[in-house]
Amino acid sequence: MKYPAIRVLKRAFSLTDALRLCRLRLQAGHDDDALHDYRVATRRLCSILAPFDNLSGFAAISEPVRQLKRCLKRSNDLRDLEVQLALLSAVGADKTEGPQRAWMEAEAIRDTLLREELLEHVTSPKISTALRHVEMRLPDALANHGGHSLRRAVQAYRAGLCVSIDRRLCLGPALFDEHLEWHSLRIDCKRLRYIGESHGDLLGEGWEKEASIARRVQDGLGELRDLDILMANLGSLADMEEGVRQKLEGVRAERQTAAESAVAKLTQYFSVRA
Fold first, then answer.
1. pTM
2. pLDDT in the model for residue 238
3. Are 75 and 39 contacting, i.e. CB atoms less than 8 angstroms apart?
4. pLDDT tops 90 at residue 158
5. What is the pLDDT at residue 108?
6. pLDDT recorded at residue 99
């Protein structure tokens, strides 16, 4: 096995180890970062393998990877709910007598139920088997390819992401009027960031700056999305305490400005790169 393949293998194995540790942390409970770390490790592992989907030998890994992705998707509702509860606490909604407090109390119960359901799935034999299959099959898949083949696959994957990002940036200010478009831009930036952090040695110079800008856009749009989901969920609370509503609207305005600034920087980077 050539050295580039060995590096990919080491990174993948470090993440399967991290996922096993996160599972234990989730089982133990009382670890506020365990869910976040589990999600990040899963996304990073999938990102490491994504550029090689069409290479010979990698079809054997596709099903265990899909199993890990399905588990990740199951955690979305819990993650969103915990972020929403934290946002409301940050603006003091839990210290008021308005309807948003009752909403928080009801959702806190749902949070517990979602966590129990997710824990059952995360610790299931299916996930153990998926991790084991990735570790068993990946060495053989990588052994079929040298550094040039892997580098070409990573660069082609990055190029596809850049085309998708550039198309959305062409919308200009109208981007923020199309929720699906800026949500898709956030996902593409997340993938661009991870591909740089995972395979920077196969991309060559300049990936650090690109990954840094992509992360800023990902974070900015992600925080805006979290608040929009919360505001949509609270929309039916017509008699929500005005002070809480004003604080949330103020936070949203700040996040909108930060997200627009990040997207503007990304647009500038892409225009220079072109």
1. 0.87
2. 55
3. yes
4. yes
5. 84
6. 74
